[in-house]
Amino acid sequence: MIITPRSPEYWRLFDGFGHSAFRLEARQVYEDEAEPLRCFLADEPKPPMPGKERWVSRVMAARAAGKVMVRVHYIREPLTPYLRYEFGWSYPPNVEAGEDIRIVNSEPAPGRDFWLFDSRFLLWLDYDSEGRMTGAELEDDPAEIVRANYIRDAAMHAAVLFAEYQREITATA
Questions:
Q1: Which end of the chain has less neighbouring CB within 10 Å, N or C?
Q2: Which of 63, 79, 90 is nearest to 168 (CA)?
Q3: Which residues contact 60 (CB under 8 A, 6 or more apart)?
Q4: How does strand 68-75 pair with strand 20-25?
Q5: With bands split at pLDDT 50, 70 and 90, how would you rate the model's confidence at 108?
Q6: Number of domains in the chain
Q7: Residue 49 sits in a domain of what CATH number?
Q8: Rounded distance, CA 67 to CA 98, Å?
Q9: How far apart, in Å, do the first and last CA atoms of the chain sit?
Q10: Residue 110 sits in which domain range?
């Protein structure tokens, strides 16, 4: 079933999951935060980020309800300007709110981006060549859902906590 990104139907998945939401990020660039990215790269003050504030509130509400939100991002070094921004400005508020973010420094990522809710609802995410989300599809094939669970488990095994990765790259800089 096709779902319009950021539509009420899309956000219902995030507000309605029962125990866990897992995100696999496979891309090195996403284009959903153009102005904050521009400010970060220009060493300007952080602009208002209402989308980030809504996300942080959503994470905090999930955590307060005893739910787990996890994200694993497969990255390659050297980091893209977008990843430097994400690690500097975008991920820290998520972590403070209770999102468990992990990094795998490896190539290639095991497939396309997705969200896996409660280990049984799989939402594929599609992007254009510039990194803009163009679509989302709720998968109903049980074999694909099992495969996504396997990818999640392997990613969690290979990943390090975001804070640990940050310490590693700071130590080598």
A1: C
A2: 79
A3: 97, 98
A4: parallel
A5: confident
A6: 1
A7: 3.30.870.10
A8: 10
A9: 45
A10: 2-172
